[in-house]
Amino acid sequence: MIEKTVDVATRDGAIETFVCHPERGGPCPPVLFLMDAPGIREELHDMARRLATVGYYVLLPNLYYRAGRDTKYGPDVLKHGSAEHARMREVRTKMTIPPVMDDVAALIAYADAQPESKTGPVGVHGYCMSGPYALAAAARYPDRIAAAASFYGTWLVSDAVESPHLTLAKARGELYISCAEHDDLAPPDMVQELKALFDKSGNPGELEIHPGVHHGFAFPQRWCYDKAAAERHWERLIALYRRRLG
Prior knowledge:
By secondary structure, the chain is of the alpha/beta class. The chain is 34% helix and 24% strand.
């Protein structure tokens, strides 16, 4: 496995990005791995590595970079009331979809310029806060993004600019939307509304509700980690990328 951390030039500065890909068999199809709210950490690096081992050029950017380099948080980040949680929320609450779409364009341009990355269709998947970003990216860049996945994405129906529920029909790539049965950030009524819109869009993908699990079920270090559901998430994601990226 080859891995490195690079600064990718963007409209607003430079986004620190963890990059990994197989040592052999390249060039590999590029995949953008968009982080959840707690931010960049070794747990996400390990997930990026797992995806890279099956043949992808994976880019994991720190989407909080506009707030500075001191945007990586300690283990208390998930503990409500902790200093780390408050520090993260100060940055998280200012995030919006349009600037992240600019970042997606910059990351695709970077990948295009690397000999280890195959020029052509791109995959993108996001967890938690980045679920909407992944779906919005598929709608914003339909000529490049051939596959997009959202895992327990938050507020998938909202009044935000480019909210996924408004843009589903614009995506040409296959979409996969994974929801947890128990998720205060994507409650059942919202999921049902999104499913109706998804079905109406005619997209060849799928919206799947995973029974008995909670928001965050795919993260090995989270209290709600569910091994069976987490492995299913890998099965769905890799199969999606195999179909659409090769």
